[in-house]
Amino acid sequence: MAATAAAATAAAATLAAATSSLLRRSPLLRPHALRVSRDFAPRRFARHIASSTNEEAAAKTAAATADTGGPTIFDKIIAKEIPSSIVYEDEKVLAFRDINPQAPVHVLVIPKLRDGLTGLDKAEPRHAEILGQLLYAAKVVAEKEGVADGFRVVINNGAEGCQSVYHLHVHVLGGRQMKWPPG
Ligand code: 5GP
């Protein structure tokens, strides 16, 4: 798994270097009329590929112990045993900033009581109320963070969905233009 991540990082770095070199050397690609977009940053692209690969690797590792129902890092955050930057809290829900933000605003909204919800696929009719509360809290967070006009709500589920923490959580992302389709 680490070898795959390293290979992807190396491949991305090679591609980034080759692209940089081509852009530097080819006058056809650098006329005044064809400015290279600030979005096209080879190093950032390489970092993005490496980071995506790491997330996939982390998700696969996490999936191996996912359904043991054991405690996760979020239990420590709920218990305030480890610090987090809390954005919103009520009796049922806690929202805090993601430690590895993927957008200027990146907040995780979680149920304080997991109640079997290691992932959304474990939802049962009895969870309907908390699921609604999580989504409503996501909207409150978006308002508090000043991104209510445009934001994204994501729930990663399972290894293929890139889930790495097995305590249901809603990602609230905003503060930049989102792309579609997602990666
Ligand atoms: P998932 O990959 O399961 O959809 O999302 C889990 C998220 O939890 C990731 O975005 C990751 O950055 C975040 N995360 C993992 N550990 C911590 C932590 O200790 N503190 C905070 N604030 N976020 C965490």
Automatic annotation (TrEMBL):
Q: Name one GO cellular component term.
A: cytoplasm
Q: Which GO terms describe its biological process?
A: purine ribonucleotide metabolic process; sulfur compound metabolic process
Q: Which residues form the active site?
A: 169 (tele-amp-histidine intermediate)
One Pfam family matching this protein: HIT
Which positions fall inside the HIT domain?
A: 73-183
For this chain, one GO molecular function annotation is: adenylylsulfatase activity
- The record places the motif (Histidine triad motif) at 167-171
PANTHER family, alphabetized: HISTIDINE TRIAD HIT PROTEIN
What's the protein name? HIT domain-containing protein
Name the lineage. Answer: Eukaryota, Viridiplantae, Streptophyta, Embryophyta, Tracheophyta
